[in-house]
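lol forgot to send this yesterday, sorry. struct tokens for the thing we talked abt
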């Protein structure tokens, strides 16, 4: 299919020159980094996004090159490099430049019959977290591994500096570079966003409801900002076996993923009248409880020499920074038009986060995990925490520079335990420049946490991606086992009680 796709596309001579001639630019031209982008270059907060793609076919490198020239390289951020702004000491700006694909495509010569190819890919991706990106060229690269794994015939790995854009926008941009396998001229279809039904109460009851909503909004925002400030100053999570130590942002990370059945998650969602986000948060809370109980149980045994059923300490404080995309939905069609027709869309880092507490305990009823997750998320929805924390970080960077903003973000993330995100993907099989994808597993590294969890839906699958510090979490596959088993227990509880809709 990749060669057919290549014949359908218009060839572009290389090297690729962007729409603006760099030789015509003066020293003062270029686009300055936004406060959020500067934040990702602050000391101790230099973050990169990793996106691993499993292909169902061997990679046709010529097709990949042609596709990149006609799509991704037309995006200004992927055809610009960072230079120092001479008029603003300490500041940098984006300047468009000539892009030579050979500088961005890394294709190692590999033995196709190697032993343990899955482990090789895992080690290879982990090795990327040990190296810094070359600042003399646009801050992205694509690694192509012609090695057959248990899930794919070949593997592609994007590494993109976080200053180029937020994770949600970059995932959408990469999806805009794909097409339906069944129709190579059509963009992928994403499921419709889940919206709560409008409140139909009117009259006096509606007035009371609105007044209460405003009260809870103000109160919850006040409490959340108070907790946020306390976290910056002194409030730390419990030192559990998954909590990172000082310097964790600079350590090597391991990236693994596990694919589960999305239909099982949807069944729980329909039955419990929840959202997908509620269910995956419940699964995460259950999986972390099971994993931590096992880790504590390995250290403590009762007098009979057998492990206790419940080895968890009381009152564990464990919080996640839940990533929230504040950007109005651009849509992959708009991003595709931007690359094809040079139209304009809003771009940049528009992410914020909320502090999400997890209850770490063993439940007799597995459904209690998702009920608690739903209650926590519903309360967070009635708060302006994400908007306020985003505005505060922007203002801090503008007034005191990226170093101050980086210090704030570093403290918040380091004093919590993990980061969590959930991104919706295509509902049918897609192809990346003619290469059908079997899975898509994005993640991130460079922030001060030992664990990052990312859920990515694709077709009838949900991919759970983990980025871990192996010095803190030496058995990430065990954690994946606990997450997968938690989904099974929650689904079985629904089936056992005859709650299926």
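and heres what i got for the seq, position by position
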């Amino acid at each position: 299919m990749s060669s057919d796709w290549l014949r359908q596309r218009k060839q572009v001579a290389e090297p690729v020159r962007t729409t603006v001639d760099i030789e015509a630019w003066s020293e003062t031209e270029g686009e300055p980094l936004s406060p959020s982008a500067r934040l990702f270059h602050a000391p101790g907060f230099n973050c990169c996004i990793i996106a691993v793609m499993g292909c169902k076919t061997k990679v046709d490198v010529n097709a990949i090159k042609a596709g990149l020239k006609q799509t991704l390289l037309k995006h200004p951020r992927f055809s610009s490099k960072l230079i120092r702004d001479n008029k603003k000491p300490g500041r940098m700006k984006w300047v468009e430049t000539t892009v030579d694909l050979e500088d961005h495509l890394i294709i190692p010569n590999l033995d196709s019959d190697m032993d343990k190819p899955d482990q090789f890919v895992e080690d290879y991706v982990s090795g990327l977290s040990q190296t810094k990106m070359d600042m003399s060229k646009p801050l992205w690269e694509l690694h192509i591994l012609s090695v057959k794994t248990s899930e794919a015939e070949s593997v592609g790995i994007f590494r993109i500096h976080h200053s180029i854009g937020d994770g949600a926008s970059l995932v959408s941009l990469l999806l805009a570079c794909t097409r339906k396998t069944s129709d190579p001229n059509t963009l992928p279809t994403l499921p419709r966003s889940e919206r709560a039904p409008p409140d139909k109460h009117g009259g006096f009851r509606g007035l009371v409801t609105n007044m209460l909503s405003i009260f809870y909004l103000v109160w919850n925002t006040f409490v959340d900002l108070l907790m946020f400030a306390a976290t910056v100053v002194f409030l730390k999570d419990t030192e559990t076996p998954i909590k990172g130590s000082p310097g964790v942002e600079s350590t090597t990370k391991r990236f693994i993923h596990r694919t589960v059945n999305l239909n099982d998650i949807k069944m729980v969602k329909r039955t419990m009248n929840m959202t997908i986000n509620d269910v995956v948060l419940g699964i995460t809370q259950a999986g972390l409880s099971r994993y931590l109980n096992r880790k504590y149980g390995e250290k403590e045994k009762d007098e009979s020499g057998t492990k206790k059923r419940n080895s968890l300490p009381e009152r564990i404080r464990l919080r996640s920074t839940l990533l929230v995309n504040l950007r109005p939905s651009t849509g992959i069609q708009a991003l595709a038009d931007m690359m094809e027709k040079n139209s304009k869309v809003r771009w940049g880092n528009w992410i914020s986060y909320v502090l999400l507490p997890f209850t770490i305990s063993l439940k007799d009823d597995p459904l209690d995990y998702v009920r608690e997750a739903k209650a926590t998320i519903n309360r967070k929805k009635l708060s302006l925490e994400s908007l306020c924390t985003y505005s505060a970080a922007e203002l801090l960077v503008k007034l005191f520079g990226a170093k101050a903003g980086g210090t704030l973000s570093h403290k918040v993330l380091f004093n919590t335990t993990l980061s969590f995100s959930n991104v919706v993907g295509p509902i049918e099989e897609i192809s990346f420049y003619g290469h059908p994808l079997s899975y898509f597993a994005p993640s991130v590294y460079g922030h001060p946490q030992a664990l990052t969890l990312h859920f990515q839906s694709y077709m009838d699958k949900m991919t759970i991606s983990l980025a871990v510090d192996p010095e803190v979490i030496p058995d990430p596959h065990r954690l994946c086992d606990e997450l997968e088993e938690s989904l099974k227990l929650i689904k079985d509880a629904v089936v056992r009680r005859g709650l299926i809709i």
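The first helix runs from residue 2 to 8. anyway ping me if u want another try
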